[in-house]
TrEMBL record:
Keywords in alphabetical order: Cell membrane, Membrane, Transmembrane, Transmembrane helix, Transport
Superkingdom assignment: Bacteria
GO function term, MF aspect, one: water channel activity
Protein name per Swiss-Prot or TrEMBL: Bacterial nodulin-like intrinsic protein
Gene name for this UniProt entry: aqpZ
Keyword hit for Chaperone: no
GO CC annotation: plasma membrane
Main localization (coarse): membrane
Family to which the UniProt record says this protein belongs: Belongs to the MIP/aquaporin (TC 1.A.8) family.
PROSITE patterns: MIP (PS00221), PROKAR_LIPOPROTEIN (PS51257)
Organism: Terricaulis silvestris
Membrane topology: Multi-pass membrane protein
Transmembrane segments: 9-30, 36-59, 79-100, 132-156, 163-183, 203-225
Residues making up the signal peptide according to the UniProt record: none
UniProt-listed Pfam families: MIP
Length: 236
């Protein structure tokens, strides 16, 4: 179990550092929305093959919750994964802050750490990148996480799924291409928690949505697999 927790810590650390790092260090003016989307997706692909054989590469409390809901994980393991994932995200965001602070043009208050948000964007960079409402953000996060978990639970049914990491990473990429302007894209409570802990303000106030909505979406997907509504006739 210790190996699993270390793997989940490293995987979530990597996702936040490179995904949020693309937004903070590259931004829309350099790598653009497509570049940020691929940074998140490729980070997942890399970690899926790097730590997948150890922990399954959840790197996301919502994924662990969906796996648990589907009956593929114990409660104790899920709680341990949650702790490792949240710590990895917080440390990853902290390292990103240290790196970004090395630029004289960067300030945490103005540029943030790629935190998620909803509502009209403030001068301090908090809120929805496209000024989308709380309702829009909630609907997107539930549906996007649901579909993300459908892919994850579907492609990992077989131990021989050699392309599972690629499928999962590409799914996360397209979710970001569509949703960055809505919420900055969470579908991952740990990914939202990490930057919010350092940014504070509205990022912490709005964090509830990026915990609750992904969990709802993941739970729904897990339930469909648990009752075999999304399983083949042979039970796989």
């Amino acid at each position: 179990m210790v190996k699993n927790l270390v793997a989940e810590f490293i995987g979530t650390f990597t996702l936040v550092l490179f995904g949020c790092g693309a937004a903070v260090l590259g931004g829309f003016g350099i790598v653009g929305q497509l570049g940020i989307a691929f940074a998140f997706g490729l980070a997942i692909v890399a970690m899926a093959y790097g730590i997948g054989p150890v922990s399954g590469c959840h790197v996301n409390p919502a994924v662990s919750f969906g796996v648990w809901t589907a009956g593929r994980m114990s409660t104790g393991d899920m709680l341990g994964y949650w702790l490792a994932q949240c710590l990895g995200a917080i440390v990853g965001a902290g390292v990103l802050l240290v790196i970004a602070s090395g630029s004289p043009d960067y300030t945490l208050a103005e540029h943030g750490l790629g935190q998620n948000g909803y509502g009209v964007r403030t001068p301090a960079g908090q809120g929805s990148p496209g000024d989308y409402s709380m309702l829009s953000g909630a609907v997107f996060e539930v549906i996007a996480t649901f579909l993300f978990l459908v892919v994850i639970l579907g492609v990992t049914k077989s131990a021989e799924s050699k392309f599972a990491g690629l499928a999962i990473g590409l799914t996360l990429t397209v979710i970001h291409i569509v949703g960055i302007q809505v919420t900055g894209v969470s579908v991952n409570p740990a990914r939202s928690l990490g930057p919010a802990v350092w940014v504070l303000g509205d990022a912490l106030i709005q964090l509830w949505l990026f915990i609750a909505m992904p969990m709802i979406g993941a739970g729904l997907a897990g339930c469909l697999f648990r009752v075999k509504l999304l399983s083949s006739d042979d039970g796989n």
